[in-house]
Write a structure and sequence with these properties.
2 copies of one chain form a homodimer. Chain A has helices at about 5-15, 60-75, 95-110, 175-185, 200-210, 230-240, 250-260; strands at about 20, 30, 40-45, 80-90, 115-125, 130-135, 155-160, 190-195, 215, 245-250, 270-275, 280-285, 290. Chain A is an alpha+beta fold and about 300 residues long. The first copy, chain A, has a 7-stranded mixed sheet with strand order 8-10-7-11-9-12-13. In chain A, strands 1-2-3-6-4-5 form a 6-stranded mixed sheet, with helices on one face. In chain A, a hairpin with a 7-residue loop joins strand 2 and strand 3. The longest helix of chain A has 18 residues, at about 95-110. Chain A is globular. The first copy, chain A, starts with a helix and ends in an 11-residue tail after the last strand. At the A-B interface, helix 1, strand 3, strand 4, helix 3 and strand 5 of A face helix 1, strand 3, strand 4, helix 3 and strand 5 of B.
């Protein structure tokens, strides 16, 4: 059973009925809340052996468990307010392992302003499993930004640099919350997603939800130093995943302005444009040839 | 590492600061929400081998995964609005297993009015692990009911009947949401908790949080038919856990009225009283002798 197939099944059975303003299929769900701002919520699992290694530092795992959900809310243009963390622990884990996990969660809270509201702990005979759920809301007067609002004629932008994250940065990445909040304070993005599966996969999600074609330019992709140089570096920037940068669309004038200014101290780069056409992603190579860009990103349940 | 020890560690590091109205240590956390009703949130893990058997019906597991969190919100006097469900699946699970899991979650939603807002799916090399998180709010003008408000002189009541749940009822139990909402609409409970660990353990949690002594009367405990008869039945009613009934305290006049009327069609029984004294629980046996009642309930990480 593939992950996308399961999500399709669940999405058919659970449409976005009231009080859901946005349901399954975006970075986070949006719930209309009586009298107040909408509640935006995202949940994420981290499983030992699938998302991290047994030898990874528990302090980094505590950070990452909450950071992935904060990143999901940032991709909606929202601030994370409170989180809960559920942990299934192998018998025999030393007490200081658990203390380090908690300390890492605390560091992420200190950095982002999140408060840890609760959790659950239990025992497992299998791999350590962490499940974070984070709640937040959009700034006053701002609607959450979905994956479905990209409009032909807009530019496609990305924050930071991509690729090579799995060498270490993926554990202790800074969620782009302040960047997203500055963005929605200054303008109105068409669509936004955070890069967890990889640019080639996540651009495709955004194109599919918006019903548009996205054209990326190889020469404009910001390749991180960790990804290496040349074609190998580009491939990693397109496919590695776990960058947790923001991919978003803006009207061309806004796009040029954001590229000049950056967001909250983080560089922002125009990497392509939104076109009419059958949903999908194409890549313009340095030699000017254009080809379909297939998802090479990480997908759970790959057969 | 014991579960209660971990919770103590986390509670020390994460006190209930703003916007938390209630943090770690209750059935659910309560978050002050700008302009609206508070957001009440609870998260729960179910791990194969710890909380259910590989042979258990996936439809029942889908129900239970959400029902345990709805029950937590009910224990705060709150209605569950929206939930998210994260599932770590073993490779090779058949597609219809997953479809049945989703169908069971759908049945719980249909019964309780919960909407499923989102989720996450991933692969695990270990036991199937389900993590549900449910959000809700108290009725207008009602404060969430904590574990900490029991007052000497109040009566202690329990809904339904106890014991023997692990024979099957624990999977497909009806969360006592309507009962809890009728209760808070009619009066103001001192304290409330849902019986997940077992009466002997959960009464102790309530006594500890409220700083009171609770005296239970063996002859008044409603023992379920599934628990069996006589002393063995009583022991199971006190210790089995997973009953997911409500334990709450009321002023004596209200208590007598609720015992006469029941709540939303569910019987309610006065089983004891709140006393001043060192926090803990005592049991008055049928012969009139009183003895300390130690937690015999299910605790994860028992050594």
């Amino acid at each position: 059973v593939k992950e996308l197939e399961i999500i399709r099944l669940i999405r058919c059975r659970f449409p976005a009925v009231a009080p859901l303003l946005r349901g399954i299929g975006d970075d986070a769900a949006v719930i209309d809340w009586p009298g107040g701002r909408p509640v935006v919520v995202s949940t994420d699992l981290l499983v030992e052996g699938t998302h991290f290694r047994p030898a990874d530092a528990p302090r980094d795992l505590g950070w990452k468990a909450l950071a992935v959900s904060v990143s999901d809310l940032a991709a909606m243009g929202c601030r994370a307010t409170a989180g809960v963390l559920a942990v299934a622990l192998r018998r025999g884990l030393p007490e200081d392992w658990v203390e380090e996990l908690i300390a890492g969660a605390g560091e992420l809270c200190g950095r982002t302003g999140l408060v840890l509201a609760g959790g659950d702990t239990t025992e497992t005979s299998g791999p350590v499993t962490l499940c974070s759920t984070v709640l937040g809301s959009p700034p006053a007067g701002v609607a959450p930004v979905g994956r479905d609002g990209a409009v032909p004629g807009q530019a496609v932008l990305v924050s930071g640099s991509l690729g090579g994250s799995l060498g270490g940065r993926h554990l202790r990445f800074p969620p782009r919350q302040e960047e997203a909040l500055e963005l929605v304070a200054r303008t109105r993005p068409g669509a936004m997603i955070d890069l967890s599966d990889g640019l080639s996969s996540d651009a495709r999600h955004l194109a599919a939800e918006s019903g548009v074609r996205i054209r990326l330019h190889a020469g404009r992709i910001p390749v991180s130093a960790a990804a290496g140089e040349g074609d190998a570096g580009l491939r990693r920037a397109l496919n590695d995943g776990e960058d947790f940068e923001l991919l978003f669309t803006l009207d061309p004038g806004d796009a040029a302005e954001m590229e000049r200014s950056g967001l909250a101290g983080t560089p922002v780069r125009i990497v392509g444009e939104v076109l009419e056409g059958s949903p999908g992603v194409t890549l313009v190579r340095p030699d000017g040839t254009e080809e379909p860009l297939l998802p090479g990103g990480y997908e759970h349940f790959r057969d």
